[in-house]
Amino acid sequence: MTPPDDPTAPTRTDSELLVEFIDHRYEPAFAEVVRRHGGMVLAVCRSVLGNTPDAEDAAQAVFLTLAQKAGHSSVRKHLVGWLHRVAWYVAARGAKARAIRRRHEEEATRMRNEILASHEEPLRLDALHAALNRLSEKYRVPLILHHLEGRSQAETAALLGCSVDAIAVRLHRARDMLRDRLGRLDRRGAVASAAVLAGAWGSAASAEVTPAFVATTSHAASAALAGELASAAAVSGQTLALTRGAINMLYWAKTKAVATALAIVLTVGGVVGTMLHANEAVAAAPTAITGVITKLQDGQITLRRRTGEVTVAIDKATVIKVDDAVATADALKVGMSTAAFVEGDKPATEVRAYSPKAPPAPPPPPAPPKVVTGLVSQVTAASIVIQPQIGPAITVAFDGTTRVKVNDRLAAAPELAVGMSVGVFYADDKPATEIRAYSRGVLTPP
């Protein structure tokens, strides 16, 4: 469906583009948002993950998270700051996953810590973004727009609805605040000079997003909006995991904010005991419910526990792992052992399921031993030759484990002699387990 007006016109604001995308599922509108801010997001991810495929996966995860959160007016209103914050989180999460995956700390550190060439002490790009992320929205957004996205002060002022003079003042104060925070992050407490900071801005500026990145990301965003992200062909498993992690982070960040606000209100009212109880109710860690899946329905799973069955809701934000690998709800099956992390009546934040292990197959029953009877026609140190009443002679081996009886008493192998009647128990190609021999005469059946 195509809206009546061109949604990608330069005069359209980011908020208007996202509304067009949400209301009409019009990919070009979202693609324009990716073109405008993709360079900044990719640069943030590269500052942590280096110029690697991991950085592109992380950048794509940021926009897929946006596709699922763009319906919130607060996200659209503070889009640039929101993108920077989520990009920083996703990249940091990706770096941690990569370090675990590679099991090689030196390599992970080298890839994560790209540094700048400068006449003074170099400033790490990830430290720059970490300090930038700590600034308030008022000062952080102008720095992102002006220094990372390369907009002029006039363009920045127009986007933020301020005068150029006001933006100039904010930028000046923001740079001072940033230098101070960079010093706090530095173990030595050093403050980055203006020259070092200027060089850092140049290296941290927007990266170039390719048309292919814009196209695949906007197409995957449409799938995310329709709740079909897991089936999108252009989305890697790593991107999917990072997207789910970002959505989970935003959920808990919102929960924490609500808990903090409630605590402040109750403290002002003087109800300290009630505050502690309410804060625990809102911000408590999720409860782990364990059991075996007995039923799968749309949007929920039923677990059998010792105390009875429990139904747990799940949704698109639920992180699902099957056998420790990120998966979709379709991978859940009846009979799986499962741990679901829930809080109150909300959908589970995470579901960890494990495929049932088949019980080991019982060993096959031992084959009954063969029994041959006849007269001994030949004896050696390790075998005897038996002549049955019907058929050819049979040679049967024996060893030190073979039980030998002569005339119903335990005996040794040398007592076996030609002409004895014998009954021999043995398996194919194995020494006899028992030999029962009788002196000359009729063989007694064993």
UniProtKB/TrEMBL annotation:
Name of the protein: Sigma-70 family RNA polymerase sigma factor
Listed GO biological process terms: DNA-templated transcription initiation
Lineage, uppermost ranks: Bacteria, Pseudomonadati, Planctomycetota, Phycisphaerae, Tepidisphaerales
Ranges of residues in domain RNA polymerase sigma-70 region: 34-93
Assigned keywords, A-Z: Sigma factor, Transcription, Transcription regulation
Family note: Belongs to the sigma-70 factor family. ECF subfamily.
GO molecular function terms listed in the Swiss-Prot or TrEMBL record: DNA binding; sigma factor activity
PANTHER family in the record: RNA POLYMERASE ECF-TYPE SIGMA FACTO (PTHR43133), RNA POLYMERASE SIGMA FACTOR (PTHR43133:SF51)
Entries under CDD domains matching the protein: Sigma70_r4
Domain RNA polymerase sigma factor 70 region 4 type: 126-177
